[in-house]
Amino acid sequence: MGHVTAVINQKGGVGKTTTAVSLAAWMAHLGRRVLLVDIDPQGNATSGLGIDRRDLPYCVYDALIGRRSLAEVTVATRWERLRVAPSTLNLAGLEVELAAATQDAGWRERRLREVLDSGRETFDIALIDGPPSLGLLTVNALAASDGVVIPVQTEYYALEGLSQLLNTLQFVQRRLNPALDLDGVALTMHDHRTNLARQVAAEVRAFFGRRAFESIVPRNVKLGEAPSFGEPITTYAPDSPGSVAYREMARELLHRVGLG
Amino acid sequence: MGHVTAVINQKGGVGKTTTAVSLAAWMAHLGRRVLLVDIDPQGNATSGLGIDRRDLPYCVYDALIGRRSLAEVTVATRWERLRVAPSTLNLAGLEVELAAATQDAGWRERRLREVLDSGRETFDIALIDGPPSLGLLTVNALAASDGVVIPVQTEYYALEGLSQLLNTLQFVQRRLNPALDLDGVALTMHDHRTNLARQVAAEVRAFFGRRAFESIVPRNVKLGEAPSFGEPITTYAPDSPGSVAYREMARELLHRVGLG
Ligand SMILES: Nc1ncnc2c1ncn2[C@@H]1O[C@H](COP(=O)(O)OP(=O)(O)OP(=O)(O)O)[C@@H](O)[C@H]1O
Ligand SMILES: Nc1ncnc2c1ncn2[C@@H]1O[C@H](COP(=O)(O)OP(=O)(O)OP(=O)(O)O)[C@@H](O)[C@H]1O
Ligand SMILES: [Mg+2]
Ligand SMILES: [Mg+2]
Q1: CA B37/CA B6 separation, integer angstroms
Q2: In this predicted model, what pLDDT tens digit does every residue of A125-143 receive, in sequence order?
Q3: Pocket residues for ligand 2 (CB within 6 Å)?
Protein backbone atom coordinates (compact mmCIF):
# COMPACT_ATOMS: atom_id res chain seq x y z
CA MET A 1 0.00 0.00 0.00
CA GLY A 2 1.56 3.25 -1.11
CA HIS A 3 1.86 6.27 1.15
CA VAL A 4 0.12 9.48 0.02
CA THR A 5 1.54 12.93 0.95
CA ALA A 6 -0.11 16.27 0.08
CA VAL A 7 2.15 19.29 -0.48
CA ILE A 8 -0.08 22.15 0.66
CA ASN A 9 -0.04 25.83 1.58
CA GLN A 10 -2.68 28.40 0.61
CA LYS A 11 -0.03 31.12 0.55
CA GLY A 12 1.03 31.62 -3.02
CA GLY A 13 4.55 31.14 -4.36
CA VAL A 14 6.05 29.40 -1.30
CA GLY A 15 7.59 26.55 -3.32
CA LYS A 16 4.81 23.89 -3.32
CA THR A 17 5.39 22.85 -6.93
CA THR A 18 9.18 23.05 -6.72
CA THR A 19 9.10 20.93 -3.54
CA ALA A 20 6.66 18.35 -4.94
CA VAL A 21 8.54 17.95 -8.23
CA SER A 22 12.02 17.90 -6.63
CA LEU A 23 11.09 15.41 -3.89
CA ALA A 24 9.27 13.20 -6.40
CA ALA A 25 12.26 13.16 -8.74
CA TRP A 26 14.75 12.42 -5.96
CA MET A 27 12.62 9.63 -4.46
CA ALA A 28 12.33 8.01 -7.90
CA HIS A 29 16.10 8.40 -8.30
CA LEU A 30 16.53 6.66 -4.92
CA GLY A 31 14.62 3.64 -6.23
CA ARG A 32 11.00 4.23 -5.14
CA ARG A 33 7.95 4.03 -7.44
CA VAL A 34 6.59 7.59 -7.31
CA LEU A 35 3.31 9.11 -8.50
CA LEU A 36 3.08 12.91 -8.72
CA VAL A 37 -0.57 14.08 -8.67
CA ASP A 38 -1.08 17.61 -9.99
CA ILE A 39 -4.39 19.05 -8.79
CA ASP A 40 -3.49 22.70 -9.39
CA PRO A 41 -5.34 24.04 -12.47
CA GLN A 42 -2.18 26.04 -13.24
CA GLY A 43 -0.51 22.71 -14.05
CA ASN A 44 3.03 23.81 -13.13
CA ALA A 45 4.06 20.36 -11.84
CA THR A 46 2.86 18.84 -15.12
CA SER A 47 4.86 21.24 -17.31
CA GLY A 48 7.79 21.23 -14.87
CA LEU A 49 8.26 17.57 -15.84
CA GLY A 50 8.18 18.29 -19.56
CA ILE A 51 4.60 17.17 -20.20
CA ASP A 52 2.67 19.26 -22.74
CA ARG A 53 -0.87 19.67 -21.46
CA ARG A 54 -2.21 20.06 -24.99
CA ASP A 55 -1.09 16.49 -25.83
CA LEU A 56 -3.01 14.87 -23.00
CA PRO A 57 -6.14 12.80 -23.79
CA TYR A 58 -7.17 12.69 -20.11
CA CYS A 59 -6.13 14.23 -16.82
CA VAL A 60 -6.89 14.23 -13.11
CA TYR A 61 -10.18 16.02 -13.80
CA ASP A 62 -11.50 13.01 -15.76
CA ALA A 63 -10.71 10.73 -12.82
CA LEU A 64 -12.27 13.10 -10.27
CA ILE A 65 -15.60 13.20 -12.11
CA GLY A 66 -15.50 9.42 -12.45
CA ARG A 67 -15.11 9.24 -16.22
CA ARG A 68 -11.66 7.61 -16.24
CA SER A 69 -9.63 5.49 -13.83
CA LEU A 70 -6.38 6.57 -12.22
CA ALA A 71 -4.50 4.16 -14.51
CA GLU A 72 -6.06 5.76 -17.59
CA VAL A 73 -5.07 9.32 -16.67
CA THR A 74 -1.55 8.53 -15.40
CA VAL A 75 1.34 9.14 -17.81
CA ALA A 76 4.99 8.11 -17.72
CA THR A 77 7.78 10.69 -17.68
CA ARG A 78 11.30 10.41 -19.12
CA TRP A 79 12.50 9.38 -15.66
CA GLU A 80 12.29 5.81 -14.45
CA ARG A 81 9.79 5.05 -11.70
CA LEU A 82 8.35 8.60 -11.89
CA ARG A 83 4.75 8.84 -13.18
CA VAL A 84 2.35 11.79 -13.22
CA ALA A 85 -1.41 12.22 -12.95
CA PRO A 86 -1.44 15.53 -14.84
CA SER A 87 -3.62 18.61 -14.48
CA THR A 88 -5.38 20.67 -17.12
CA LEU A 89 -7.44 23.85 -17.02
CA ASN A 90 -10.81 22.13 -16.67
CA LEU A 91 -9.88 21.39 -13.07
CA ALA A 92 -10.65 25.04 -12.34
CA GLY A 93 -14.37 24.41 -12.88
CA LEU A 94 -14.57 21.40 -10.54
CA GLU A 95 -15.40 23.36 -7.41
CA VAL A 96 -18.55 24.93 -8.87
CA GLU A 97 -19.45 21.75 -10.81
CA LEU A 98 -19.35 19.62 -7.68
CA ALA A 99 -21.02 22.33 -5.54
CA ALA A 100 -24.37 21.28 -6.98
CA ALA A 101 -23.92 17.59 -6.09
CA THR A 102 -26.81 16.20 -4.06
CA GLN A 103 -24.92 13.27 -2.54
CA ASP A 104 -24.38 13.13 1.19
CA ALA A 105 -21.96 15.34 3.09
CA GLY A 106 -18.31 14.47 2.44
CA TRP A 107 -18.98 12.96 -1.01
CA ARG A 108 -17.45 15.95 -2.83
CA GLU A 109 -14.42 16.00 -0.56
CA ARG A 110 -13.61 12.30 -1.07
CA ARG A 111 -13.38 12.27 -4.90
CA LEU A 112 -9.58 12.21 -4.92
CA ARG A 113 -9.40 9.66 -2.10
CA GLU A 114 -11.51 7.22 -4.14
CA VAL A 115 -9.32 7.78 -7.18
CA LEU A 116 -6.04 7.21 -5.34
CA ASP A 117 -7.29 4.32 -3.20
CA SER A 118 -8.04 2.44 -6.43
CA GLY A 119 -4.36 2.43 -7.33
CA ARG A 120 -2.44 2.38 -4.04
CA GLU A 121 -0.54 -0.78 -4.94
CA THR A 122 0.91 0.84 -8.08
CA PHE A 123 3.18 3.26 -6.20
CA ASP A 124 5.38 3.40 -3.09
CA ILE A 125 4.67 7.08 -2.49
CA ALA A 126 2.38 9.63 -4.14
CA LEU A 127 2.92 13.38 -3.80
CA ILE A 128 0.00 15.74 -4.46
CA ASP A 129 0.81 19.30 -5.63
CA GLY A 130 -2.01 21.64 -4.52
CA PRO A 131 -3.21 25.09 -5.63
CA PRO A 132 -2.72 28.25 -3.53
CA SER A 133 -6.12 28.08 -1.84
CA LEU A 134 -8.04 26.21 0.86
CA GLY A 135 -10.94 25.32 -1.41
CA LEU A 136 -12.41 21.99 -2.51
CA LEU A 137 -9.32 20.83 -4.45
CA THR A 138 -7.07 21.29 -1.41
CA VAL A 139 -9.59 19.64 0.92
CA ASN A 140 -9.72 16.70 -1.51
CA ALA A 141 -5.94 16.41 -1.31
CA LEU A 142 -6.02 16.44 2.49
CA ALA A 143 -8.85 13.89 2.65
CA ALA A 144 -6.90 11.58 0.33
CA SER A 145 -3.57 11.74 2.16
CA ASP A 146 -1.75 9.93 4.95
CA GLY A 147 0.41 12.97 5.59
CA VAL A 148 1.06 16.59 4.70
CA VAL A 149 4.24 18.44 3.79
CA ILE A 150 3.93 22.22 4.32
CA PRO A 151 6.46 24.31 2.35
CA VAL A 152 7.13 27.62 4.10
CA GLN A 153 9.06 30.35 2.35
CA THR A 154 11.15 32.16 4.97
CA GLU A 155 9.17 35.38 4.59
CA TYR A 156 6.71 37.20 6.83
CA TYR A 157 3.44 36.66 4.89
CA ALA A 158 4.15 32.91 4.62
CA LEU A 159 4.40 32.78 8.42
CA GLU A 160 1.16 34.70 8.82
CA GLY A 161 -0.86 32.19 6.83
CA LEU A 162 0.18 29.13 8.88
CA SER A 163 -2.50 29.38 11.58
CA GLN A 164 -5.25 29.35 8.93
CA LEU A 165 -3.65 26.31 7.34
CA LEU A 166 -3.37 24.46 10.64
CA ASN A 167 -7.06 25.19 11.35
CA THR A 168 -7.98 23.62 8.02
CA LEU A 169 -5.84 20.56 8.78
CA GLN A 170 -7.64 20.10 12.10
CA PHE A 171 -11.02 20.46 10.40
CA VAL A 172 -10.11 17.74 7.88
CA GLN A 173 -8.72 15.48 10.62
CA ARG A 174 -11.97 15.79 12.59
CA ARG A 175 -14.47 15.46 9.76
CA LEU A 176 -12.89 13.61 6.84
CA ASN A 177 -9.55 11.96 7.63
CA PRO A 178 -8.61 11.24 11.26
CA ALA A 179 -5.38 9.52 10.20
CA LEU A 180 -3.96 12.63 8.52
CA ASP A 181 -0.50 13.33 9.96
CA LEU A 182 2.08 16.12 9.48
CA ASP A 183 4.92 14.50 7.51
CA GLY A 184 7.04 17.62 7.66
CA VAL A 185 7.52 21.36 7.31
CA ALA A 186 9.92 22.38 4.53
CA LEU A 187 11.76 25.72 4.78
CA THR A 188 12.20 26.99 1.23
CA MET A 189 13.86 29.79 -0.75
CA HIS A 190 15.98 30.52 2.28
CA ASP A 191 18.49 33.37 1.99
CA HIS A 192 20.74 32.84 5.00
CA ARG A 193 22.21 36.35 4.60
CA THR A 194 19.01 38.17 5.60
CA ASN A 195 17.78 38.67 9.17
CA LEU A 196 14.20 38.22 7.98
CA ALA A 197 14.85 34.71 6.64
CA ARG A 198 16.79 33.67 9.74
CA GLN A 199 14.06 35.02 12.05
CA VAL A 200 11.25 33.28 10.18
CA ALA A 201 13.22 30.01 10.08
CA ALA A 202 13.81 30.24 13.83
CA GLU A 203 10.11 30.86 14.48
CA VAL A 204 9.04 27.94 12.31
CA ARG A 205 11.50 25.61 14.05
CA ALA A 206 10.40 26.84 17.47
CA PHE A 207 6.77 26.18 16.59
CA PHE A 208 7.11 22.86 14.74
CA GLY A 209 10.18 21.41 16.44
CA ARG A 210 11.33 18.10 14.97
CA ARG A 211 8.51 18.15 12.40
CA ALA A 212 10.49 20.76 10.44
CA PHE A 213 12.89 18.98 8.08
CA GLU A 214 16.57 19.28 8.99
CA SER A 215 17.36 20.12 5.38
CA ILE A 216 16.68 23.78 4.46
CA VAL A 217 16.35 24.67 0.78
CA PRO A 218 18.45 27.72 -0.13
CA ARG A 219 17.43 30.25 -2.76
CA ASN A 220 19.13 28.83 -5.86
CA VAL A 221 18.51 30.09 -9.40
CA LYS A 222 18.96 26.54 -10.80
CA LEU A 223 15.62 25.60 -9.20
CA GLY A 224 13.98 28.45 -11.09
CA GLU A 225 15.64 27.55 -14.37
CA ALA A 226 14.89 23.81 -14.36
CA PRO A 227 11.15 24.05 -15.16
CA SER A 228 11.83 26.18 -18.22
CA PHE A 229 13.61 23.09 -19.62
CA GLY A 230 10.85 20.75 -18.44
CA GLU A 231 13.29 18.92 -16.16
CA PRO A 232 13.45 18.30 -12.42
CA ILE A 233 16.55 19.50 -10.60
CA THR A 234 17.87 15.91 -10.39
CA THR A 235 18.89 16.03 -14.05
CA TYR A 236 19.07 19.77 -14.72
CA ALA A 237 21.61 20.57 -11.97
CA PRO A 238 21.96 17.51 -9.72
CA ASP A 239 24.88 18.88 -7.66
CA SER A 240 23.51 22.40 -7.14
CA PRO A 241 22.82 23.55 -3.56
CA GLY A 242 19.06 23.46 -4.20
CA SER A 243 19.24 19.92 -5.55
CA VAL A 244 21.35 18.59 -2.69
CA ALA A 245 18.96 20.13 -0.13
CA TYR A 246 15.99 18.38 -1.76
CA ARG A 247 17.93 15.08 -1.94
CA GLU A 248 18.48 15.24 1.82
CA MET A 249 14.84 16.21 2.39
CA ALA A 250 13.68 13.29 0.22
CA ARG A 251 15.75 10.93 2.39
CA GLU A 252 14.26 12.45 5.55
CA LEU A 253 10.71 12.10 4.21
CA LEU A 254 11.22 8.48 3.13
CA HIS A 255 12.59 7.70 6.57
CA ARG A 256 9.63 9.39 8.32
CA VAL A 257 7.02 7.46 6.34
CA GLY A 258 8.73 4.13 6.81
CA LEU A 259 10.21 3.80 3.31
CA GLY A 260 13.70 4.88 4.36
CA MET B 1 -15.31 59.74 -10.30
CA GLY B 2 -12.48 57.64 -8.95
CA HIS B 3 -10.53 55.23 -11.10
CA VAL B 4 -10.54 51.56 -10.06
CA THR B 5 -7.54 49.28 -10.78
CA ALA B 6 -7.39 45.55 -9.98
CA VAL B 7 -3.98 44.03 -9.15
CA ILE B 8 -4.42 40.47 -10.40
CA ASN B 9 -2.48 37.31 -11.22
CA GLN B 10 -3.58 33.75 -10.42
CA LYS B 11 0.06 32.68 -10.07
CA GLY B 12 0.92 32.68 -6.42
CA GLY B 13 3.60 34.82 -4.81
CA VAL B 14 4.30 37.15 -7.75
CA GLY B 15 4.04 40.34 -5.68
CA LYS B 16 0.33 41.27 -5.97
CA THR B 17 0.00 42.38 -2.36
CA THR B 18 3.40 44.09 -2.21
CA THR B 19 2.57 45.96 -5.45
CA ALA B 20 -0.95 46.97 -4.33
CA VAL B 21 0.20 48.17 -0.90
CA SER B 22 3.32 49.97 -2.20
CA LEU B 23 1.53 51.73 -5.06
CA ALA B 24 -1.36 52.71 -2.78
CA ALA B 25 1.00 54.17 -0.19
CA TRP B 26 3.03 56.09 -2.76
CA MET B 27 -0.06 57.51 -4.49
CA ALA B 28 -1.42 58.70 -1.15
CA HIS B 29 2.01 60.21 -0.39
CA LEU B 30 1.82 61.99 -3.77
CA GLY B 31 -1.45 63.66 -2.73
CA ARG B 32 -4.19 61.38 -4.10
CA ARG B 33 -7.11 59.99 -2.09
CA VAL B 34 -6.53 56.24 -2.24
CA LEU B 35 -8.71 53.27 -1.29
CA LEU B 36 -7.06 49.84 -1.01
CA VAL B 37 -9.63 47.04 -1.36
CA ASP B 38 -8.45 43.67 0.00
CA ILE B 39 -10.51 40.81 -1.46
CA ASP B 40 -7.99 38.08 -0.70
CA PRO B 41 -9.19 35.93 2.24
CA GLN B 42 -5.53 35.72 3.34
CA GLY B 43 -5.80 39.44 4.21
CA ASN B 44 -2.11 40.24 3.63
CA ALA B 45 -2.81 43.78 2.36
CA THR B 46 -4.89 44.44 5.49
CA SER B 47 -2.17 43.30 7.89
CA GLY B 48 0.58 44.80 5.72
CA LEU B 49 -0.90 48.19 6.64
CA GLY B 50 -0.95 47.44 10.34
CA ILE B 51 -4.66 46.63 10.63
CA ASP B 52 -5.53 43.82 13.07
CA ARG B 53 -8.28 41.74 11.48
CA ARG B 54 -9.55 40.68 14.89
CA ASP B 55 -10.41 44.32 15.74
CA LEU B 56 -12.63 44.84 12.69
CA PRO B 57 -16.42 45.06 13.17
CA TYR B 58 -17.05 44.74 9.42
CA CYS B 59 -15.10 43.97 6.27
CA VAL B 60 -15.43 43.70 2.52
CA TYR B 61 -17.46 40.50 2.95
CA ASP B 62 -20.25 42.41 4.70
CA ALA B 63 -20.42 44.84 1.81
CA LEU B 64 -20.39 42.08 -0.82
CA ILE B 65 -23.38 40.33 0.73
CA GLY B 66 -25.19 43.63 0.98
CA ARG B 67 -25.27 43.90 4.76
CA ARG B 68 -23.10 47.03 5.04
CA SER B 69 -22.18 49.90 2.77
CA LEU B 70 -18.68 50.63 1.48
CA ALA B 71 -18.44 53.59 3.86
CA GLU B 72 -19.27 51.37 6.84
CA VAL B 73 -16.58 48.78 6.09
CA THR B 74 -13.83 51.22 5.12
CA VAL B 75 -11.22 52.07 7.78
CA ALA B 76 -8.56 54.77 7.98
CA THR B 77 -4.87 53.92 8.25
CA ARG B 78 -2.09 55.85 9.99
CA TRP B 79 -1.25 57.40 6.64
CA GLU B 80 -3.10 60.43 5.33
CA ARG B 81 -5.40 59.94 2.34
CA LEU B 82 -4.90 56.11 2.50
CA ARG B 83 -8.01 54.12 3.47
CA VAL B 84 -8.64 50.37 3.37
CA ALA B 85 -11.65 48.13 2.79
CA PRO B 86 -10.22 45.20 4.74
CA SER B 87 -10.55 41.45 4.27
CA THR B 88 -11.30 38.74 6.79
CA LEU B 89 -11.50 34.96 6.57
CA ASN B 90 -15.23 34.79 5.90
CA LEU B 91 -14.48 35.98 2.37
CA ALA B 92 -13.29 32.45 1.66
CA GLY B 93 -16.85 31.16 1.84
CA LEU B 94 -18.32 33.73 -0.56
CA GLU B 95 -17.79 31.68 -3.70
CA VAL B 96 -19.86 28.75 -2.47
CA GLU B 97 -22.37 31.00 -0.70
CA LEU B 98 -23.08 32.98 -3.87
CA ALA B 99 -23.00 29.85 -6.08
CA ALA B 100 -26.53 29.09 -4.96
CA ALA B 101 -27.89 32.52 -5.92
CA THR B 102 -30.91 32.37 -8.20
CA GLN B 103 -30.57 35.87 -9.62
CA ASP B 104 -29.83 36.32 -13.29
CA ALA B 105 -26.47 35.66 -14.94
CA GLY B 106 -23.82 38.20 -13.98
CA TRP B 107 -25.43 39.10 -10.65
CA ARG B 108 -22.82 37.20 -8.61
CA GLU B 109 -19.97 38.71 -10.60
CA ARG B 110 -21.13 42.31 -10.11
CA ARG B 111 -21.28 42.38 -6.29
CA LEU B 112 -18.04 44.32 -5.93
CA ARG B 113 -18.88 46.64 -8.78
CA GLU B 114 -22.08 47.71 -7.01
CA VAL B 115 -20.19 48.22 -3.78
CA LEU B 116 -17.46 50.39 -5.32
CA ASP B 117 -19.78 52.31 -7.63
CA SER B 118 -21.65 53.50 -4.55
CA GLY B 119 -18.55 55.32 -3.31
CA ARG B 120 -16.61 56.39 -6.41
CA GLU B 121 -16.62 60.06 -5.42
CA THR B 122 -14.84 59.29 -2.13
CA PHE B 123 -11.51 58.34 -3.75
CA ASP B 124 -9.27 59.37 -6.65
CA ILE B 125 -8.02 55.83 -7.21
CA ALA B 126 -8.90 52.45 -5.72
CA LEU B 127 -6.54 49.46 -5.91
CA ILE B 128 -7.95 45.96 -5.45
CA ASP B 129 -5.60 43.23 -4.13
CA GLY B 130 -6.78 39.85 -5.44
CA PRO B 131 -6.22 36.23 -4.35
CA PRO B 132 -4.04 33.76 -6.32
CA SER B 133 -6.93 32.27 -8.32
CA LEU B 134 -9.27 33.01 -11.22
CA GLY B 135 -12.44 32.31 -9.24
CA LEU B 136 -15.43 34.46 -8.34
CA LEU B 137 -13.50 36.95 -6.17
CA THR B 138 -11.05 37.72 -8.98
CA VAL B 139 -13.85 37.96 -11.57
CA ASN B 140 -15.63 40.39 -9.22
CA ALA B 141 -12.48 42.52 -9.11
CA LEU B 142 -12.20 42.55 -12.90
CA ALA B 143 -15.87 43.35 -13.36
CA ALA B 144 -15.56 46.28 -10.92
CA SER B 145 -12.44 47.82 -12.45
CA ASP B 146 -11.52 50.36 -15.11
CA GLY B 147 -8.09 48.79 -15.50
CA VAL B 148 -5.82 45.95 -14.46
CA VAL B 149 -2.23 45.90 -13.24
CA ILE B 150 -0.60 42.48 -13.69
CA PRO B 151 2.45 41.85 -11.46
CA VAL B 152 4.83 39.34 -13.07
CA GLN B 153 7.70 37.89 -11.08
CA THR B 154 10.64 37.41 -13.47
CA GLU B 155 10.47 33.62 -13.20
CA TYR B 156 9.44 30.89 -15.61
CA TYR B 157 6.19 29.70 -13.97
CA ALA B 158 4.91 33.29 -13.73
CA LEU B 159 5.39 33.62 -17.50
CA GLU B 160 3.57 30.36 -18.13
CA GLY B 161 0.41 31.51 -16.39
CA LEU B 162 -0.03 34.72 -18.41
CA SER B 163 -1.98 33.23 -21.31
CA GLN B 164 -4.60 31.83 -18.92
CA LEU B 165 -4.87 35.24 -17.27
CA LEU B 166 -5.25 37.06 -20.57
CA ASN B 167 -8.01 34.62 -21.59
CA THR B 168 -9.87 35.45 -18.39
CA LEU B 169 -9.47 39.18 -19.04
CA GLN B 170 -10.96 38.78 -22.51
CA PHE B 171 -13.85 36.76 -21.11
CA VAL B 172 -14.62 39.50 -18.59
CA GLN B 173 -14.30 42.23 -21.24
CA ARG B 174 -16.78 40.40 -23.50
CA ARG B 175 -19.35 39.37 -20.89
CA LEU B 176 -19.16 41.70 -17.91
CA ASN B 177 -17.03 44.81 -18.43
CA PRO B 178 -16.24 45.97 -21.97
CA ALA B 179 -14.40 49.04 -20.69
CA LEU B 180 -11.76 47.00 -18.80
CA ASP B 181 -8.31 48.13 -19.91
CA LEU B 182 -4.76 46.98 -19.14
CA ASP B 183 -3.28 49.74 -16.98
CA GLY B 184 0.11 48.07 -16.86
CA VAL B 185 2.35 45.04 -16.38
CA ALA B 186 4.69 45.29 -13.38
CA LEU B 187 7.94 43.31 -13.40
CA THR B 188 8.66 42.34 -9.79
CA MET B 189 11.31 40.68 -7.60
CA HIS B 190 13.76 41.17 -10.43
CA ASP B 191 17.32 39.92 -9.84
CA HIS B 192 19.26 41.56 -12.67
CA ARG B 193 22.25 39.23 -12.05
CA THR B 194 20.47 36.09 -13.29
CA ASN B 195 19.95 35.13 -16.95
CA LEU B 196 16.52 33.73 -16.07
CA ALA B 197 15.24 37.06 -14.77
CA ARG B 198 16.67 39.01 -17.70
CA GLN B 199 15.18 36.54 -20.21
CA VAL B 200 11.72 36.61 -18.63
CA ALA B 201 11.80 40.42 -18.44
CA ALA B 202 12.74 40.60 -22.12
CA GLU B 203 9.91 38.24 -23.07
CA VAL B 204 7.35 40.20 -21.07
CA ARG B 205 8.47 43.48 -22.64
CA ALA B 206 8.43 41.95 -26.12
CA PHE B 207 4.89 40.71 -25.58
CA PHE B 208 3.38 43.71 -23.78
CA GLY B 209 5.46 46.54 -25.25
CA ARG B 210 4.70 49.92 -23.74
CA ARG B 211 2.07 48.46 -21.42
CA ALA B 212 4.89 47.12 -19.25
CA PHE B 213 5.90 49.79 -16.74
CA GLU B 214 9.31 51.36 -17.32
CA SER B 215 10.08 50.95 -13.63
CA ILE B 216 11.21 47.41 -12.70
CA VAL B 217 11.05 46.39 -9.03
CA PRO B 218 14.30 44.77 -7.87
CA ARG B 219 14.43 41.99 -5.28
CA ASN B 220 14.92 44.00 -2.08
CA VAL B 221 14.70 42.52 1.43
CA LYS B 222 13.22 45.79 2.78
CA LEU B 223 9.99 45.00 0.86
CA GLY B 224 9.83 41.68 2.67
CA GLU B 225 10.55 43.19 6.07
CA ALA B 226 8.05 46.08 5.89
CA PRO B 227 4.85 44.01 6.37
CA SER B 228 6.24 42.42 9.53
CA PHE B 229 6.12 45.94 11.02
CA GLY B 230 2.68 46.66 9.52
CA GLU B 231 4.09 49.49 7.43
CA PRO B 232 4.25 50.20 3.71
CA ILE B 233 7.67 50.74 2.19
CA THR B 234 7.06 54.51 2.01
CA THR B 235 7.70 54.83 5.75
CA TYR B 236 9.65 51.64 6.52
CA ALA B 237 12.46 52.26 4.01
CA PRO B 238 11.45 55.15 1.75
CA ASP B 239 14.82 55.44 -0.02
CA SER B 240 15.44 51.73 -0.57
CA PRO B 241 15.72 50.48 -4.17
CA GLY B 242 12.37 48.68 -3.87
CA SER B 243 10.65 51.81 -2.59
CA VAL B 244 12.07 54.07 -5.28
CA ALA B 245 10.99 51.62 -7.99
CA TYR B 246 7.43 51.63 -6.67
CA ARG B 247 7.44 55.44 -6.41
CA GLU B 248 8.32 55.66 -10.11
CA MET B 249 5.70 53.04 -10.97
CA ALA B 250 3.08 54.96 -8.98
CA ARG B 251 3.89 58.07 -11.00
CA GLU B 252 3.61 56.10 -14.25
CA LEU B 253 0.27 54.62 -13.23
CA LEU B 254 -1.16 57.99 -12.20
CA HIS B 255 -0.07 59.42 -15.54
CA ARG B 256 -1.63 56.52 -17.48
CA VAL B 257 -5.02 56.88 -15.79
CA GLY B 258 -5.16 60.62 -16.19
CA LEU B 259 -4.35 61.56 -12.60
CA GLY B 260 -0.69 62.40 -13.32
N1 LIG C 1 14.76 27.46 -3.60
C2 LIG C 1 14.42 28.22 -4.66
N3 LIG C 1 15.32 29.08 -5.17
C4 LIG C 1 15.00 29.88 -6.21
N5 LIG C 1 13.79 29.90 -6.81
C6 LIG C 1 12.86 29.06 -6.35
C7 LIG C 1 13.11 28.17 -5.26
N8 LIG C 1 11.97 27.45 -5.03
C9 LIG C 1 11.06 27.88 -5.93
N10 LIG C 1 11.60 28.83 -6.74
C11 LIG C 1 10.90 29.60 -7.79
O12 LIG C 1 10.00 30.47 -7.10
C13 LIG C 1 8.73 30.51 -7.75
C14 LIG C 1 7.66 30.00 -6.80
O15 LIG C 1 7.82 28.63 -6.56
P16 LIG C 1 6.65 27.59 -6.88
O17 LIG C 1 5.98 27.94 -8.15
O18 LIG C 1 7.20 26.23 -6.71
O19 LIG C 1 5.68 27.94 -5.64
P20 LIG C 1 4.18 27.44 -5.44
O21 LIG C 1 3.92 27.50 -3.99
O22 LIG C 1 3.98 26.15 -6.13
O23 LIG C 1 3.34 28.59 -6.20
P24 LIG C 1 1.73 28.59 -6.44
O25 LIG C 1 1.21 29.13 -5.14
O26 LIG C 1 1.52 29.50 -7.61
O27 LIG C 1 1.34 27.17 -6.72
C28 LIG C 1 8.88 29.68 -9.00
O29 LIG C 1 9.16 30.53 -10.08
C30 LIG C 1 10.06 28.75 -8.70
O31 LIG C 1 10.75 28.39 -9.86
N1 LIG D 1 10.67 43.05 -4.72
C2 LIG D 1 10.67 42.22 -3.69
N3 LIG D 1 11.83 41.90 -3.09
C4 LIG D 1 11.84 41.02 -2.06
N5 LIG D 1 10.77 40.42 -1.56
C6 LIG D 1 9.58 40.69 -2.12
C7 LIG D 1 9.44 41.61 -3.20
N8 LIG D 1 8.14 41.68 -3.54
C9 LIG D 1 7.48 40.84 -2.71
N10 LIG D 1 8.34 40.26 -1.85
C11 LIG D 1 8.03 39.21 -0.85
O12 LIG D 1 7.74 38.02 -1.60
C13 LIG D 1 6.60 37.35 -1.05
C14 LIG D 1 5.51 37.28 -2.11
O15 LIG D 1 4.99 38.56 -2.37
P16 LIG D 1 3.43 38.88 -2.19
O17 LIG D 1 2.91 38.22 -0.97
O18 LIG D 1 3.26 40.33 -2.32
O19 LIG D 1 2.87 38.13 -3.48
P20 LIG D 1 1.35 37.83 -3.83
O21 LIG D 1 1.28 37.68 -5.30
O22 LIG D 1 0.49 38.85 -3.19
O23 LIG D 1 1.13 36.40 -3.12
P24 LIG D 1 -0.28 35.61 -3.03
O25 LIG D 1 -0.37 34.90 -4.36
O26 LIG D 1 -0.13 34.65 -1.87
O27 LIG D 1 -1.34 36.63 -2.82
C28 LIG D 1 6.20 38.13 0.18
O29 LIG D 1 6.79 37.51 1.30
C30 LIG D 1 6.80 39.52 -0.05
O31 LIG D 1 7.12 40.15 1.16
MG1 LIG E 1 2.47 25.60 -7.48
MG1 LIG F 1 -1.21 38.53 -1.98
Answers
A1: 9
A2: 999 999 999 999 999 999 9
A3: A 11-13, 132, 155-157; B 12-18, 40, 44, 132, 188-189, 217, 219-220, 223-224, 227, 242
